[in-house]
# Entry
Amino acid sequence: MFHSIRKIFAVFTLLLFVPIILSAQTNSYLEGQDSIEIKNIEFKGNNVIKTDVLKTVIRSKETSSKYSQFIYRIVSEKLGSKPEYYNSDILVEDIKQLQVFYKRSGYYHSVISYDTFIDQGRKGVNILFNIEENRQSYIDSIVYEGLEKLPQGVQSQLFKEPIIKKGTPYFSEKASAEIGRVLDFLSNNGYPAARYDSENSGAYEFMSTHNFFLKFVFIIGTYCTFGDATIKIDPPRKDLVDKLVIRHLDFKSGEMYNREKINSSERNLNRLAIFESARIDHPSVINSSSSSILPVEIFIRPRAKNEISPEFIVSDEGGYFNLGLGLGYTNRNFFGDARTFSANLRIRTQDIQRWNFDDVFGVKGLRDLSVKGAIELQFQVLQPYFFTRSLSASWTSSVSAEKQELYILSILRNRIGFSNQFATYTYGYLDWTLERVRPDILQDTVELESVLKVLRQEDQPQFNSILTLTLQRDKTNDVFSPTEGFFNSISIEESGILPKYLPSIRSGLPFTQYYKFTLLGRWYRDLTWRRFNILAWKLKSGYQNKYGESKYSQVSIPLNRRFFAGGSGSVRGWNARELGAMPSELIQFGGNFVFEGNVEMRVSHFQGWGKFGFINLENILGVYFLDFGNIWSDITKFAPKDIAVGAGFGLRYVTFFGPFRLDYGMRLHDPLQREGKRTVFQKRFFAETLSDGVLHFGIGHAF
# Structure
């Protein structure tokens, strides 16, 4: 019996001390190594916070593959990854960082340790972080001091939507955000000098429950109102009177101080075309007085009153690659009232790389089928203040001629437009357009009878009165290269109702009664939060149709008002206006229903590379996209099998006015092809799919 007890005790002792001995051997081995790689990092006991999140907190990283290390050493450190080595000092810091992270997440009594294990053959080390999350701390009570002098109505509004509440988990970041919210509220309700008293405030923990009592002490300071505004214009301009500035302010003398109104007023002034910059300032608040009136100083730097500017046009308007020249004149403060007058003459070619220059310089000249382009003379007057600060008006008159493959479209247009900002991110536009359209059909270049029949129907001038209402909500974070947010719009267009019921505006020419709806959505998301991988996608759909007497007449919806597909901003496996679910010879006349979408991944492959000569490598983006969609002659003709699909890749070079764009699109599904040749799986990749791809140039992102 005694011998049995002695054996059990020996086994127990062995089991107890073997892990200690092995751990000591592991640590002794690790301390004697300068370059042992970390093969694996694991977390145990983290039931609430995911492992992927915790790995971003620590500095220790798992070593890269041998292939990635080879690329790092031989090719470039930007393409490959360096090996990651064990470091005991960094591991100690990792424990501290994890403890801080858990405290910020409300786990103030978490216990974190680590174990290290040598892998077989001692080729590396594995690290295991042991985590006891324990109980999450909650908020037992919250006390706000120093706000008693606020009017009762202001106090009620202040505590209407707090960031933190009693009985919820305690997060230190949310407590800090609540302090910022209160200070912002005070600065927008007459207390610009309000501050947080950190010495008399704090978060106090109850040892029995590990919950917290929060005490926030504020010193609200002096109540302030806006005083008189002094306007300083440098360099001075006699035609810029104070009224032009004052009426765009969102505050008045005698009103309660509001910091947000100062910011919005600055935005209002900086949006005016006559000012280069605008800044609003006021003296510091004296807290010793019971009341204070703050005089406001507005510093204005105006733009030149008259300006002549030549233009070199590079764009992708209409889905084409446009090159051209232009000349513009601008008069800022045209007859006073901050009005802007501009005149522009522009001549542009469309897809000049596809012109047949042998025929262009031969007998056919500019009437050759390959020639596409436009010329336009435009005059515009912009009235930024139309009854209210948020409402602006414009009048635009233009005459233009657009050459397409089978016709030249001459357009005389007068448009009166109104735009209004309903909210911070919401805008509305109402346009009334009087438009005379005259097509010149190039019938001598057409041989197909089916096309001639359509051309004869199109060969008639029209005079249309068009009303367009557009609502937009734009919450993107950048005008040229958004990485977060969304843009949504809906547009409703109607033609014919005014000529129908107001015969006096008719010109004697036929007009079309039609309606048109267009929906557009764009969304952006930064997958890495450091502008490395940007996911962008777009959906567009539109439908139009004739109504009333026009539904049964031969008059058509004007060519310039129809839907087209293909091109750099559409399905990029096709050229502009080359895609349609209809006979190929009729695609150039457009359709009445469109449905298309785009998905892009914009990757900053050269982030951190710096410059190579005069080229900033960090501004180069690689783009990988998938496009789909088509147009149909009518919504009743829609069929999923007719949806074209394209994919490809491209490059962007980001500049201060937007990125230069180069895309190569290929056709994955071509509904115009015959059976057996429609999908990428039914064609030879290099000889057909890749070689039939389309190259697109442009300015700005595709969407």
